[in-house]
Specification:
By secondary structure, the protein is an alpha+beta fold. Helices cover about 45% and strands about 25% of the residues. The chain is globular, with a radius of gyration of 11 Å.
Length: about 90
Amino acid sequence: MDITKTIKNAIDSGKITIGTDTTLKYLKLDKLDSAIIAANCPKNIRRDIENTAKLSKSKIHTFNGTSIELGSCARKPFSIVVLGLKK
């Protein structure tokens, strides 16, 4: 799976959540297909996302770059630690 291409397609279709709180909320509601976590994500956030994703049976992918690079990939002028891809 090409994560960069998947993120760009999700942005174009509007099926994306940005940020830890929003992604956790959608994971709890079982409305996400998968979550993408930046490589430099803090351990406590990564643990929360992974545990919640297991409960909702959503996939977790690690972006092979920093949160700044993930923000650039998502066409945003700020860093992003966690993205969610809606179903």
